[in-house]
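agent> fetching stored inputs for the pyridoxal-5'-phosphate docking request
agent> found them:
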Amino acid sequence: SGVLKSDGLLEKDRRHLWHNMRPYRANDRPLVIVEAMGSWVTDHEGNRYLDGMSGLWCVNVGYGRKELADAAARQLQRMPYYPLTQSHLPAIELAEKLGEWLEGDYVVFFANSGSEANETAFKIARQYQQHIGKPLRSKFIARYRGYHGSSLGALAATGQAIRKQGYEPLAAGFLHVRPPDSYRRPEGMTAEAFQLLCAREIEERIIWEGEDTVAGVIMEPVITGGGIIVPDQLYVDEVRRICTEYGVLLIIDEVICGFGRSGRKFGHHNYGIAPDIVTMAKGLTSGYLPLASTAVKREIYEAFQRTGEYDHLRHVNTFGGNPAACALAMANLEVMEKEQLPQRAARLGEELLNGLKRELADHPYVGDIRGFGLLIGIELVEDRDSRKPAAAAIVQSVIDRCRAAGLIISKNGDTVAGMNNVLTTAPPLSSTDEDMAFLL
Ligand code: PLP
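agent> prediction call returned; pasting tokens
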């Protein structure tokens, strides 16, 4: 039902619409999605696909949730907009709810996208350091292969060269260290030693830069768009220790890992650490409307409660915390709670990981299979001894064949480093057991 005729739609698309991250090809055929329900999407020609990427890693509760649409519609009719220079009920209620979900004493600022949530975090971190008498602390340390967004600060924090080349100069003061990618550790080194080495590189960088010049460390719990790099407990504990010891704020980017994706409410809950700042977007509304958030520990918020004219956070955005988006996010969180979707993601993720290991363990092109909740990566190599990344054409051919069979998956990594060779899947947390069997 509701399926459109092709009649020139793709030609119109090519003529008028500029896509994200999509190289121009004269015969390009992007999916034009017209309907979606559960974990499935339908294109304009009536073809159905299992959405193994939850859109762009965000449709955590699946498509077609009437209660989310209703919550937004009710709020749009009652009071569609008011800025958060003042206040409104949906934002107050959602901020309180996010505090519960974070399981810590956090205060919440709203924005519209993950990039903006991270930009907000950087500004808060710098100003906080000034407020506590450390005005030189302006730098941030991030990891290669990490992704933090497309705006000039969030992109500066990103550790994937291809996304940055040609767009410089970006925001200054962002430094990178190696990711804890044990699959690509030096020969002869234990995974444990390598994980420690990676964490200690952050400490060394802080010392070399001058510890009084570093404001924060930003990291995803698990590097996602950079190819599903899952750190050991040891690494995360060590990063937390280093940040505390040197007075550097630990900013955890939960844009993908948050809201049940990891098998817990937030990715960092799997490691039992308390971040100083948490950034969120995507699964906050399951992608139904734009909304993002930056949560800070109460003591950071309180450092801004001085009385000088410029002591407050001098940061505003028109749409952040839109009432309908907040009401929808609340309904989204209630669905996740009612259906225990974080727990479901843990079970489905484990079953999928085990299934993939069973089916693909001996495949000559499969170097590594990694997972974190319902986030799975399969690293393709030319051969398993050299671990040389598989050629882009091979990786793409797997994606194309999946598409032809009715399944959307993706590839991630870092093109410049020649490592865009990790097949990724992150289906909705509400996927049925039949969906998961199909995906496998
Ligand atoms: N942080 C992470 C970990 C992301 O994956 C993304 C987007 O994919 C962002 C930040 C940026 O979010 P947005 O695209 O909403 O600006």
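agent> quick read of the result: Residues 15 and 172 are 36 Å apart (CA to CA).
agent> awaiting further instructions
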